Amino acid sequence: MTGDLPVPRALAPVLDSLTPEQRRAATALGYVLVLAGAGTGKTKTLTAGVATRVELHGMVPGQILCVTFTNKAAQEMRKRIGDVLGPYSIPTWLGTFHALTARQLRAEPEVAQLRSGFDIRDAEDSLAIVRRLIRTVPKEKLPVPQEGAPGDARQIKKMAERIARLKEDLITPVAAFAHVESLIGRRQSANLHVDHESWRFVVGLYGRYQAILREQNAADFGDLLMWPTLAMLHDAAYHRRWSARFTAVMADEFQDVNRAQYLWLTLLSRTSGELFCVGDDSQSIYSWRGAKVGFLRNFPREFPAVKTFKLEENFRSTSNILDASNAVISFDPSRIEKTLFTRRGKGLPIEVLGFSYATEEAAAIVREIGRRAATGVACHDMAIIYRQNRLSRTLEEALLHARVPYEIIGDVGFYRRTAVKDALALLTLCAWPDERRSDEAFRRMANRPPRGLGARGLGKIEIEASAGGQSLCAAATRTRLSPRCAVALQGFVQILRQIGCREGESLGERLTGLLEATGYLDMLRADDSDEAATQRENLAELIELAQGFRRVEHLLEHAALAGGAPGEKGRDRVQLMTMHRSKGLEFRHVFLPAWEEAIFPGAMSRNPGEERRLAYVALTRAMEQATITFCDYRQGGSSRPSRFIDEIPLKNRISSWNHGRNEPRQSDGRWRQVDQELNALGL
């Protein structure tokens, strides 16, 4: 603490800018756990913690380790510390887990049986290696998955994820057999299902996968953490060397650590006894990445001497927003109790609005955005935050129709998604097979799904088209190609021409026919990955949308304008994003559509506690106004309001736009009445 030490002049302004609880946390030494609620100044407190250790306690910046999860967060931390201490006092060991452990492993690569100058394989590289290995195994020898087919994309991805999980749990290929057999035994003893065939297959796959990495003198992301951590666990001299390097270890977003990250942090802090962790269990939303919120929640039991501080004063949101957020998260029985409060005043109540259909919901949200923009609210101060990417299409359409500029954060716009662009290319080929305007579409779709057309064959078609002044589609049937490719392309072009000549079909029906007849939908159905499922959903959205257009050129123009809207530079734009992407961000006005059972929380959600934490994160992004909406019907089925809506106190919410604008309704009571009537009729 600073009570017995004079505060240096450079440090005084830093400490004076903190609240009493922030100051106590920043100046505490030893094992420190800072429970920082949303918007309570965690980065400011962490920065002050570093400054205190340098300026007050004389720690050398090069001996302080500061770690976080993203490069963006690391850059922000570096800037803030530099602003306080100057550029020469920024800790040199400041960065992401992967960056810092890679640096540690490069210093002594032999602990991972690697040589100097080893390469690092990213997640896509790792998946490619697993894919290659699985495709060398006859399908009859592959385990039969619960969903999909042996050797399909979903199984390959799952195998790669299981190898990554083993590494996060510090299980080497040598130890994998015993670990997996123990896992299978425990689950069978508890009468729980376990996919034992797949897990046993992963054991052998893991060993072959790791052998390839060793041959290539390469490490994947899991290796960067696993091998240095295991070396510190099993080699006392190695542990002493690395633990003695640091006089303090500072960790941000501690609620998101996995087992390897947790042990790496605690082992590095063993010599100094200085471990400063900042996190919020109520914002732990990444269990699907391997994060284990239990490490934060059990920290006081692991380290009984820990000093715990709760940052509960929120500087972002109004009281109504925080009361709603506190109420929703209070239903999590495992959380560490804390209650956010603010000095910003009560503010506007949460708006909870019901609509019949998603199109009405989107149109109303966009009208309200326009109204608020007209009163002086900047577009970039408004955000639409949803649970799933697939919900963005209807919102994009409404924004485009109203000519409201927007930007999708962390995802591409609907019309830039692969399946949508492929489908529009098929429509282009169908409409103008003999015109050069269809050439780009032909290049995109001639071998999708595969028809045996490679770069050489396409080159021949290009030469034929150029010589005869024809389109690529027309030239394809006149070019000498391999028999297999020639027959496949002949059939493809014939389908395009036949469907193009049909009369009386709507544009949606024509598009459906193209996707089916060309084998495109069969290609997606054969791929059981989540990505393929999402692409099929995008195509269903596009087919529905196409029904509203009479001519292909009108739909293509609409798509081109919509595809360009998010990318326009220098414009003030409404922000669209998923709840996961919104973490760490803040906006004056936040719209939260589709708060409905089966969407939020999801019907297939395996972690209801994490869905609740997502609701807390989403609500606490709002600074001044939060608007929740839901529909009676969405995507062809009926729906009911999310349980999270009922948990928001009535005193903190209203059921209309402020001052009764527009005419959206709160259909909660009406929905229940209709539901009772249908039940009485047995429907």
Automatic annotation (TrEMBL):
Keyword Isomerase: yes
GO MF annotations in UniProt: 3'-5' DNA helicase activity; ATP binding; ATP hydrolysis activity; DNA binding
EC number of this enzyme: 5.6.2.4
Gene Ontology terms: biological process: recombinational repair
Pfam families to which the protein is assigned, alphabetical: UvrD-helicase, UvrD_C
Top-tier EC class: isomerase
Positions annotated to bind ATP: 36-43
Keywords, ordered alphabetically: ATP-binding, DNA-binding, Helicase, Hydrolase, Isomerase, Nucleotide-binding
Catalytic activity entry: Couples ATP hydrolysis with the unwinding of duplex DNA by translocating in the 3'-5' direction; ATP + H2O = ADP + phosphate + H(+)
Domain UvrD-like helicase ATP-binding per the UniProt entry, residue ranges: 15-318
Keyword check for tRNA processing: no
Family the UniProt entry places it in: Belongs to the helicase family. UvrD subfamily.
Protein name: DNA 3'-5' helicase
Lineage per the UniProt record: Bacteria, Pseudomonadati, Pseudomonadota, Alphaproteobacteria, Acetobacterales
